[in-house]
């Protein structure tokens, strides 16, 4: 399969930029407080909440809500083992696709250079020049 077609097959739940940012940030720590995660990702409260709900429904993150000193709401988010595996697999998949594209491009470039050196007698790569 061509690597470009493979890009269309990535996990869209994880690949969406905001959710990928959330999962990547959470994979680097044990847990994060909502406002800290908001600051890291640059998302609005509503946008972050919406994406977290989707990730929680897919069991990729766990969300705990409680009150500090009975008054101050606190929300913490942690990535689940399933979420950690999903984001790691996603990055590996993208790296594999990228590597394949680069390799195919390198082969194409070599072919182009070989054709150029044969067909252009003034080329510095030419055997005749």
From TrEMBL:
Keywords: DNA-binding. Transmembrane segments: none annotated. It holds the Pfam family HTH_34. CDD domains: HTH_ARSR. This is Winged helix DNA-binding domain-containing protein. InterPro entries: ArsR-like_HTH (IPR011991), WH-like_DNA-bd_sf (IPR036388), WH_DNA-bd_dom (IPR027395), WH_DNA-bd_sf (IPR036390). It comes from the Bacteria. Residues 19-97 form the Winged helix DNA-binding domain.
């Amino acid at each position: 399969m061509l690597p470009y077609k493979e890009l269309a097959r990535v996990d869209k739940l994880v690949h969406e930029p905001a959710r990928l940012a959330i999962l990547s940030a959470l994979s680097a720590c044990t847990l994060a407080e909502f406002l800290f995660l908001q600051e890291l990702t640059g998302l609005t409260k509503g946008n972050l909440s919406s994406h977290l709900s989707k990730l929680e429904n897919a069991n990729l993150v766990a969300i705990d809500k409680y009150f500090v000193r009975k008054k101050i709401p606190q929300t913490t988010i942690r990535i689940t083992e399933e979420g950690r595996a999903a984001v790691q697999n996603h990055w590996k998949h993208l790296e594999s696709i990228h590597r394949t594209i680069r390799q195919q491009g390198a082969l194409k470039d070599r072919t182009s250079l070989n054709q150029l050196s044969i067909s252009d007698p003034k080329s510095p790569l030419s055997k005749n020049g």
